[in-house]
Amino acid sequence: MPKYIFVTGGVVSSVGKGTVAASIGKILQSKGYSVDFLKIDPYVNVDAGTLNPYSHGEVFVTDDGGETDLDLGWYERFLDIPMSRLNNLTTGQVFQEVIRRERAGEYLGQCVQIVTHVTDEIKRRIKMVADRRGADIVIVEIGGTVGDIEGQPFYEAARQMKLEEETLFVHVSLVIYLKTTGEFKTKALQHSVNELRRAGIQPDIIVARSERMIDETTKRKIALFGTLPKEAVFCSYDTDVIYEVPLILSEQGLGEYVVEHLSLKGGKPDLSEWRKIVETFKSNGPLVKIAVCGKYTSLTDSYISIKEALKHAAAHENARLEILWVDAEKVERGDLSEFSMLEEADGILVPGGFGKRGSEGKITAINFARTRNKPFLGICFGLQLAVVEFARNVLGLKDANSTEHDPETPHPVIDLMPEQLDVEQKGGTMRLGSLPITVKEGTLAYSLYNSSIVHKRHRHRYEVNPAYHERLNRAGLLFSGMSPDKRRVEIIELPDKKYFIATQYHPEFMSRPGKPEPVFRGLIAAALAEVKIKAMKVKAS
Ligand code: GLN
After folding, report:
1. Atom of ligand 1 at shortest range from CA of 459
2. 344 and 252: one domain?
3. DSSP β-ladder status, 183-185 and 376-379
4. What's the order of all strands across the beta sheet hosting 287-294?
5. 67: Cβ below 6 Å to ligand 1?
6. Which of 26, 86, 334, 369 could link 376 by a cystine bridge, Cβ 3.0 to 4.6 Å?
7. Which helix (H) or strand (E) holds 23?
8. Which of 278, 306, 337 is the last residue of a domain?
């Protein structure tokens, strides 16, 4: 029988619930259990695909083309198991199904209500995750903060689950550390526990999220107010290396406590392999600077998978990483500070994106990388704009553009994919998910992947216009990866440059600590070579 761990959050959101949930999963996985996850997002959107990354952070794409919450990315990175669209549940999905059934007449004669119709549907979806791969333990993370109006049906469903299944409730809440007096303040946490009790849930474990490790007195206080033994209180404190959180919680005995309370078989978690990987993130190697030129640079959560993929690659190459966030709109306005960052960087990355705003700035950054021969990686929109830049400045098609921003362009080198032409609904209709790509032998891409076929995740509507393929190739742009039917460009590169590569797919979603995605590893390696050249030049002068 599967067991269920519910993870709730208190005081404020973005307190690190996702990492705590993923860490508990990692600890249990290291004990030999199979773990699966469900992230609940109480908003009414059916999925995260239509949300602005500026307010909600990145949209994480799963193999099966789900456009999901970024916490699924943490589950994948920590446990290295693929998530699917089923691992993310929203209010929108729950209501869509309940209303569909009501219209189909499945509830004929009944008054359809939050309790039990909506809560039953929530429970069905939770249990469906357990059935998917036959997991021993399903970790259900309820997004937002306890007390939110939106979350109520989900807390109610979770409360009911206690009567039906073996459950464990973990409450993650902020403990404020006052620097001036050196005190930990637990009042807000206490209130959030009370709020949870109002929903009928008594936590079995409390994880205090704090700047630093809480002291014994604070732990005792939290236990007393939480009606828990002191052993049920843990602390997840700030760390530079996020992958250290499973080690931090494990050292406090969280694994043993969970196992005992879910009457699972004991045994110490074996995190030794993980520990070795974590150590690589604390490298003292050379500093490598990568400029990421995008539109959402003031909320770097919009690029979380890219940030992590760069970190994985840097750790693997034994380098320290600094990301220089370059605002594409400021580049567009000619802001010198942004140009000096591009100059300072050892490599440039242009990530995915949508729409006209900032696109010319990104093209300028790509032009900078190409003409200065700086290592460059373009992703999705980054590939499309690299093609625009190449068409304009190498092919001489001055007004070349993507029809996404300029429907009237005389040279639509990037255009809508034909099957997108009559798409009317915006939600879930892009070319999505994992698809095969054939990689051409003898290319940079082949040397990175060492394979003639790879599977990567997609999320786009536009593509390199087939009418321009030949001209682009003749001018020196190499298509090193194509869809197996050879119609669709997947990877481009410039063989005469040190490292100039772009992908139509999103490599960042497949990167793991200890197993960096090859195009990121290649970027860091090429950027490191730049660092060494610079150092040699300094020495010589
Ligand atoms: N806007 C582009 C498209 O829809 C690129 C999308 C992306 O970067 N994810 O094709």
Report:
1. 9
2. no
3. unpaired
4. 320-327, 287-294, 347-350, 376-379, 500-503, 489-493, 478-482, 431-439, 453-460
5. no
6. 369
7. helix 17-30
8. 278
Does 541 map to a domain?
no
Residue 115: CA count within 13 A, CB half-sphere: 9
Nearest to 128 by CA among 118, 138, 119: 138
Output the CA 462–ligand 1 centroid distance in Å.
6
Q: At what angle do helices 359-371 and 381-393 cross, to 10 degrees?
A: 70
- The total domain count for the chain is 2
Distance 311 CA to ligand 1 centre (A): 24
Query: Do 333 and 237 share a structural domain?
Result: no
How close is the Cα of 189 to the center of ligand 1, in Å?
A: 41
The token duo for 524 is: 């860091």
Residue 232: which CATH number?
A: 3.40.50.300
- What distance in Å separates the CA atoms of residue 522 and residue 541, rounded to the nearest whole number? 29
| Pair (337, 355) in one structural domain | yes
The secondary structure of 441-464 as a DSSP string is: TTSHHHHHH-SSEEEEEEEESEEE
Q: Which domain range does residue 461 map to?
A: 283-535
- Ligand 1 contacts CB of residue 404 (under 6 A): yes
Same domain, 248 and 299: no
pLDDT computed for residue 461 by the predictor: 96
Same domain, 263 and 305: no
Query: Is 43 near ligand 1, meaning CB less than 6 Å away?
Result: no
Domain identity same for 216 and 352? no
122-136, 252-266, 316-330, 428-442: least confident range:
252-266
Band of residue 337 on the pLDDT scale cut at 50, 70, 90 = very high
Answer whether 453's CB lies under 8 Å from 439's CB.
yes
Helices (H) and strands (E) in the chain, counts: 19, 23
| Ligand 1 and 380: CB distance under 6 A | yes
Burial of 41 (0-12, 13-18, 19+ CB in 10 A): buried
Domain match, 268 and 363 both: no
Note the pLDDT tens digit of each residue in 88-127: 999 999 999 999 999 999 999 999 999 999 999 999 999 9
Amino acid at 77: R
Find the distance separating the first CA and the last CA of the chain, reported in whole Å: 70
Q: Active-site residue numbers?
A: 380, 506, 508
- Say if residues 195 and 149 touch (Cβ distance below 8 Å): no
541 touches 412 (CB < 8 A): no
Of the residues 240, 258, 278, the one at which a domain ends = 278
Is the pLDDT score of 425 beyond 90?
Answer: no
